[in-house]
Design brief:
heterodimer; A: mainly beta; OB fold (Dihydrolipoamide Acetyltransferase, E2P); 3-stranded antiparallel beta sheet; about 40% strand; B: alpha/beta; Peroxisomal Thiolase, Chain A, domain 1; 9-stranded mixed beta sheet; two-stranded antiparallel ribbon; 13 helices; globular
């Protein structure tokens, strides 16, 4: 019997990110002081330590920086999905994030492949950003 | 970074010990620590009452609050200096650094550094998986079903992409390490393996297969650090700390500045500068090898090989005992033992033993200077150590 895939965990730093994902919007933090974007949301800007931060919606497009095909997952919730792809995505706007590459052609993924975000339902209202390969 | 105060020639490792290794259901993690500590103190020719400081690591299988104090209590010692540290796999080398700093500052004279966990038999499979899953970021990585091998596999893929490192070269690391383990009486793995065995092993996370991944052992390790002055009067041959440096760039792989350049170059630079030597002066190296790609990267970062040439170094046999730079002469974490912080600690134990000499078929001829590199997280935290048989 399969175990449910892990739903996003919400805390004070991540609440807005996951709420946006549930509405199928990919958002990241922008520092209004130095202008730099960063992925992992936090109290301050990791570049200049300003706390003047805003959420910005981004294109959802990027390229595969690296990936692996998971053959033997550690998390039993993923056992039935194997083989599947976990990747690091370089977003067109600059920052890097982790996500799966999904879709019928996912296992043929290569470094540098262009990808675009989709949102995968994950229990209740929650959705997690995933990526699929696209022609560019 | 300037090195504010050099630790060169200030301290020596005067005793080393490793516990029994393998599947040891009759031993607790604390017991493995104690067995290794007892062997280390006997090796040094010291008494437990000579220990006035203790540093230990962390434990997944026995996650006591205040593990350092728990360790002292278990051993029946009452030191003036005590801590438990959690810097992942780089913890042992960093524990050595903290011990050396405290001794050099005159705060303490003799420190026991130890680690031990019964990872093979001391936890259920579910508990083991949960602990290891905690290495992924709980908010932004875990929803994707990666794993520690998976994250290192991403590094391997990117490294292969940029530097043409090959699957076969990575497999050569595992084969070299296993060949060394067969010369060590206490190694967990006792059977030889071939390149084809590694390539044909059960796939875990592409491009890594089961034999590219470190062991899960019950194991403990310990060493005794004291002042270079005090070391002169002891029965064992002291091994002197010549250089040590650490550097930390991230914890989770999604925040790594790069998957092709890591913090080992910087920790190594500090260690070499402090020691006043270069890669060409090192006779034997014990490089952290949680996965087969890792020693290849470390070899390059530390300046022993050009970028992209680390894989060929292993494949051409230069890392074998008798080769240009013997690496992981005890069998490393791929074939000797791995249990949390113990894996890196046993690299320090092996370096000390190589410098003392007398290891039979495992001995690197005329080993005068050794390098140990520990890394923790996903190549996140780094500490490089240079040890020597003589005061430099």
């Amino acid at each position: 019997m399969s175990v449910a895939l892990p739903a996003p965990v919400v805390n004070a730093d991540s609440a807005y990110y996951w709420a946006a994902a549930a509405a199928e919007r990919l958002v990241i933090r922008k520092c209004m002081h130095c202008g730099q974007l960063h992925f992992m949301p936090r109290y301050l800007c990791p570049h200049c330590w300003s706390t003047d931060l805003e959420w910005v919606e981004i294109s959802g497009r990027g390229r595969v920086y690296s990936f692996t095909v998971m053959r033997r997952p550690a998390d039993p919730a993923f056992s039935d999905l194997a083989p599947y792809v976990v990747a690091l995505i370089d977003l067109d706007e600059g920052p890097r994030m982790m996500a799966g590459v999904v879709g019928e052609d996912a296992l043929g993924v290569a470094i540098g492949d262009p990808v675009t975000v989709i949102f995968e339902p994950r229990g209740g209202e929650a959705k997690v950003p995933q990526f699929k390969r696209v022609a560019r | 970074m300037q090195i504010p105060v050099s630790l060169k020639n200030k301290v020596a490792i005067v005793g080393v010990g490793e516990s029994d290794i393998g599947k040891l259901p009759h031993m607790t993690g604390l017991g493995l620590n104690a067995q290794a500590a007892k062997r280390a103190i006997e090796d040094a020719g010291l008494k437990p009452s000579d220990i006035d400081g203790l540093i230990t690591a962390y434990s997944f299988t026995e996650p006591y609050f205040m593990l350092g104090a728990v360790m002292c209590e278990y051993l029946g010692i009452r030191p003036h200096f005590n801590a438990s540290m959690t810097v992942g796999g780089s913890t042992p080398a960093i524990m050595l650094k903290h011990a050396a700093e405290a001794i050099a500052a005159g705060q303490v004279e003799t420190v026991l550094v130890c680690a031990g966990e019964n990872r093979a038999t001391g936890q259920t499979r579910d508990a083991a998986l949960n602990a290891l899953l905690a290495v992924g970021h709980p908010y932004y990585e875990r929803p994707y079903g990666g794993s520690i091998p998976g994250y290192y596999a991403m590094i391997a893929n990117r490294y292969m992409h940029e530097y043409r490192t090959t699957r076969e070269q990575m497999a050569a690391v595992a084969v070299n390490t296993r060949a060394h383990a067969l010369r060590h009486p206490n190694a967990h793995m006792k059977k030889p393996i071939t390149l084809q065995d590694v390539l044909d092993a059960k796939p875990v996370a592409d491009p890594l297969g089961l034999l590219d991944c470190c062991l899960i052992s019950d194991a403990g390790g310990a060493f005794i650090v004291t002042s270079a002055e005090r070391a002169k009067d002891l029965k064992s041959s002291p091994v002197y700390l010549q250089g040590i440096g650490e550097f930390h760039t991230h914890e989770h792989i999604m925040c790594a500045p790069s998957l092709t350049e890591f913090g080992a170059a910087e920790s190594g630079r500090i260690a070499f500068e402090m020691a006043g030597v270069g890669p060409q002066d090192i006779d034997v190296a014990e490089l952290y090898d949680c996965f087969s790609i890792v020693p290849i990267i470390e070899l390059e970062e530390l300046g022993f090989a050009e970028r992209g040439a680390g894989g060929a170094f292993f494949a051409e046999g230069h890392a074998a005992i008798g080769g240009r730079l013997p690496i992981n002469t005890h069998g490393g974490m791929l074939s000797h033992a791995h249990a949390g912080a113990v894996g890196g600690l046993l690299g320090i134990v092996e370096a000390v033993r190589q410098l003392r000499g007398g290891l039979g078929t495992r001995q690197v001829a005329d080993a005068e200077r050794a390098l140990v590199h520990n890394e923790g997280g996903i190549l996140s935290s780094h500490c490089t150590v240079i040890l020597a048989r003589n005061l430099g």
